[in-house]
Amino acid sequence: MSGLRRFVGAAETPPPPPAPPVEEVCEFCGAVTGPAHGHVVDTEKRSLMCACRPCYLLFTPDGGRYRSVPDRYLTGPRLSPAEWDGLGIPVGSAFFLRGEHGTAAFYPSPAGATECLLNLDAWRALGETHPLLAAALDEVEAILVRDGESFLVPVDACYELVGLVRTCWKGFDGGTEAHERIDEFFVSLRRRSSNG
Ligand SMILES: [Zn+2]
Ligand SMILES: [Zn+2]
After folding, report:
1. Residue 99 in contact with residue 45, Cβ under 8 Å?
2. Average pLDDT for 106-116
3. Burial annotation 119-156 (CB, 10 A radius, 16+ → b, else e)
4. Rounded to the nearest whole angstrom, what is the distance from the C-alpha of residue 23 to the centroid of ligand 2?
5. What is the arithmetic mean of pLDDT over 110-118?
6. Contact 67, 40 (CB under 8 A)
7. Which ligand places an atom closest to the C-alpha of 59?
8. In 3-state terms, what secondary structure has residue 71?
9. What number is the average pLDDT over the span 165-191?
10. Would you say 46 and 17 are in contact if contact means Cβ atoms under 8 Å apart?
11. Which of 152, 167, 162 lies closest to 71, judged by CA?
12. Cα 48 to ligand 1 centroid, rounded to whole Å
């Protein structure tokens, strides 16, 4: 099936996405950062590093091994059910990350960020119809979609959502608390996103 590409076990498998760091210390200089701080992606290890403000400002979002994660949140297009189904994603919400090996799709699950099949041709076509979907910067920004609603977000926001699902999800359907927390996450995402 052309266009379908499974990353797990494939020859060019990129490493799994980074786990969110838990320490509130700058991973470059050791300074205490506090809970609100910037992140830097190490594109070689594909890990997310916490950074104090001066260290964060040493890097740019594009190019180089270390890239600062920008802080822009944009509201994207609403995808029709047909557009979403065309991507071949088995769940209703996922995020899309582009790196040097191309784009990969992940969904938040109780086990962490789980990679899923993505129809790359359909994704490319969707990016031509809705340019914002192709506008996320490699490695540091992602497109997050839930029930057809889309956003361009910093990659650390996706890991915040992944962490939320991992810690709150209970049983088969997640339970009330998990759904409430996820709804809250999207309410605040809507609030801070501007029109892209
Ligand atoms: Zn620092
Ligand atoms: Zn951090």
Report:
1. no
2. 92
3. bbebbeebbeebebbbebbbbbbbbbbbeebbbbbbbb
4. 7
5. 91
6. yes
7. 1
8. coil
9. 93
10. yes
11. 152
12. 14
